[in-house]
Amino acid sequence: MKRQNLNAKNKRRVYWAIAIICLIYGGITLLMFIFSLYFNHARPQFVPSPAQIANASSYEVGRQAARFRHMFSILPTIISILTFIGSLVSIGAGISLLRLVRERETKELKREVIDSMIMPDEKLVIKELEKNDGALTQSELVRNTSLSKVKVHRIVKRLESLEIVKKYPYGMTNKIKLEKFLEE
């Protein structure tokens, strides 16, 4: 059990690290997107003034104008869009992974708290419910656990007060269902 617990903790650490890397990468690519917008679209471009044209040779003016046209080519725009999409995907993946890890940690914590609060017979009832997809009738619980009807009734009543199970009328007996946070 301890080995399995240690393995789960190592997996969680790896998931946390991957999520943080995704968020950092997303932030860096978002900054790259902002810089590419500035340098490719918002920064004042070179437009030769009449004085520069008079002082420069036609070769130099042509070279400057070619650079000016190159700034408005489609390639920088495509790169900017891809950078933006990549940053959004990376940030989304990081947030989703963080949410998934937190949900798992919450489930494990709830399970540990419940395990520390319940008695062995109550654990037996919960295990039997888990074996049968989280739901059984009360009479099936009596048969499967070999406990008396009164004992099962008291256990179900206590587990219901702890909000571990819910009891629903089901013909002449009751249907007992595990709460969703216990089902995996």
Brief write-up:
This protein has 184 residues and is mostly helical. 75% of the residues lie in helices and 8% in strands.
Mean pLDDT: 81
DSSP helix count?
A: 7
E-strand count = 3
Biggest sheet: strands side by side, in what order? Answer: 1-3-2
Instruction: Determine the fraction of residues in helical runs and give it as a percent range.
Output: over 70%
Envelope shape: rod-shaped
Integer count of domains: 2
- Low-pLDDT stretches: none
Major sheet attributes: 3 strands, antiparallel
Order of helices and strands: HHHHHEHHEE
- SS-based structural class? mainly alpha
Radius of gyration: 32 Å
Q: Give the N-to-C terminal Cα separation.
A: 17 Å
Proportion of beta-strand residues: 5-15%
List the topology elements:
Blueprint lengths: L1 H41 L7 H6 L2 H14 L2 H44 L2 H12 L3 E3 H8 L3 H13 L3 E6 L2 E6 L6
Antiparallel strand pairs: 1-3, 2-3
Helix pairs in contact: 1-4
Notes on the structure:
It is a single chain. A hairpin with a 2-residue loop joins strand 2 (165-170) and strand 3. This protein is mainly α and 184 residues long. The radius of gyration is 32 Å and the shape is rod-shaped. It has seven helices and three strands, in the order H-H-H-H-H-E-H-H-E-E. It folds into two domains: 2-117; 120-182, Arc Repressor Mutant, subunit A (Orthogonal Bundle), CATH 1.10.10. It has helices at 2-42, 50-55, 58-71, 74-117, 120-131, 138-145, 149-161; strands spanning 135-137, 165-170, 173-178. It has a three-stranded antiparallel beta sheet. The chain is 75% helix and 8% strand. The mean pLDDT is 81.
